[in-house]
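Thread: adenosine-5'-triphosphate complex, take 2
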Amino acid sequence: MNSAQPPRTLAEAAALLRRQEAELADSRRQTAELSHELSDADHGLIALHAELEAARGAAARLAAIVTSSGDAMISLSPQRVIQTWNPGAAHLLGHATDAMVGNTVDALLPEGARPAFEDALARTGSGEHAEPVETRWRHADGGLVDVSVTVSAMRDADGAVIGYSIVGQDIGRRLALQSELAAARAEREVMADRERIARDLHDMVIQRVFAAGLTLQGVTALLDHDRATARIEGVVAELDATIQELRNAIFDLHRAPQEAASLRAQIFDAISAARHSLGFAPTVSFEGPVDAAVPDGVAVHLMAVLREALSNIGKHAQASAAEVGLHTGEELLLTVGDNGRGLGPSTRRSGLANLRERAVALGGTFDIGDRPGGGTRLAWRIPLSRHRGGPTGS
Ligand SMILES: Nc1ncnc2c1ncn2[C@@H]1O[C@H](COP(=O)(O)OP(=O)(O)OP(=O)(O)O)[C@@H](O)[C@H]1O
Ligand SMILES: [Mg+2]
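Output below.
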């Protein structure tokens, strides 16, 4: 019910009309303002939507990179709990995504890798750039994997650390190639030195000794003293023998250092080099002649097999002892055993495949399996008779 009194006079009616007109104008103005504001809000919404779409696109692109990358990509909360674990990480470290998300990263870090990782977290957390660190992380099978790890802090709009991202790259192959390259370079330098010494001995020393011998022989013709002639002839014979020895030395210098060092010495060298990474000294036993029985063509492979077997013990076995045995007779039998955790189901890489290929190429066999009493034992067996060249060959 309308409480307003109806106008009683014409003047009142005119005043009411004016008031109502003014109110109408006011509400029109308000409506216009409102519609203006609405259209502004609309534009804002459209812009927001576009931004959201762009952000969604960027997130999708990032997710595609993370998923398809061959590198391990891991993200951590500030409390080091794993939040992202891409297929690259699963491939490199052997753990499935489900098994890792929600765990802390600590299980991946063997004792030796911790300080460098802590340092990288602290540096990137305080705003410094953390260089990639070459280190070893633990694989699901218990072994160690060579990785280059780059850590970066993730920050919110105010710059506060909201987590860390980690990119891990497999550098096993590169390290192996680098050490082969370094060994090849060192060998080439040694060979160059040996060639130079051999040349100097040949061109200078032998020629001078030879000339001295000729001079002495000339002197005997001038002498008519029998004892003096006999002594000089003795010295000339000595000089001839010296020249022969020099020639032998030159011949030795031209041979590769590997051939010059006995196989037995090379085996001892490889074992003592492995001590550092193993943390203990493997024992070694020989049965039968080593240097005489093993031809060079087999020795090169034997050394490669021994090095890979020792490296596997260091990387995978978690052993406290190992034994190397070399038996030579009609066949060569190299055995390498360790008291570690035994061979797991995983055969990820090519090391063991190479050992088998080397055996097959030489007409032999390769076996790896459980060692009686625990651990792993491999046997690399090569028939020797067919590889012996020269008069003793069959
Ligand atoms: N002595 C050992 N004790 C326990 N596990 C071993 C041992 N040797 C090898 N393995 C297992 O066998 C797998 C295959 O070894 P292999 O040498 O072929 O590869 P790798 O050492 O992992 O990589 P690569 O040799 O190519 O660098 C290893 O990943 C490891 O799981
Ligand atoms: Mg290996």
